[in-house]
Every structure is written in structure tokens, then in C-alpha cells.
Request: fold
Amino acid sequence: MDNKYTIADRGKTKDFHNLGFSMNYVPSIGKTNPKVFWVLVASVTNVLGYDAVYGYRYSYNGANKQAVTPAAKRFYFIGAFFSWGVDRTQDAINNNL
Reply:
């Protein structure tokens, strides 16, 4: 079968590099019931600012190409995760022994 479209440039991408940084802080909150457990989180991806190219989109005849890149160069996340309730750690340990 003869292919009527030929793409001469196969679109070899450069190596993908991504250095991320994440920091978590777990504070302790008293001994009261119900206990509250929480985690503060801060995270950044692509700290060094590399230009990521995942691949290329080609026109129907292969004459034009467009790089497929992420929507944003860096991603920032700051959040907190909470969990509260009665501490059942000892119940779980005693029931499984």
C-alpha cells in the first residue's frame, strides 16, 4: 500500500527534565478526643524552568509542525489536609494481634 503523505522530519524531541520541590509540615495538636491530624503542603514543579516538549503536531501533509508543550511552565501547589476523629490506633493493633 502506497502512503501518499510522507513526513521527512520525524520530530525527535530533546530529553525531558523536571526538577520538583515539595515541603510538608505535620504539626501536633493536643491529646483531646476527637483528635485532629493535619498536614501543610507546598510544592513546585519544574524549578529550573526547562522548556518541555512532549512531541509535535504535524499538518496533514507534514510541511508544518507545532510543538506540544505543557499549559504552564511551572505548577505551584499550597494546601492543607485535615483528618479528625477518635484515635483508634490501639484498637486496630489489639484486634489484629
About this structure: The first helix runs from residue 89 to 95. The first strand starts at residue 21 and ends at 25.
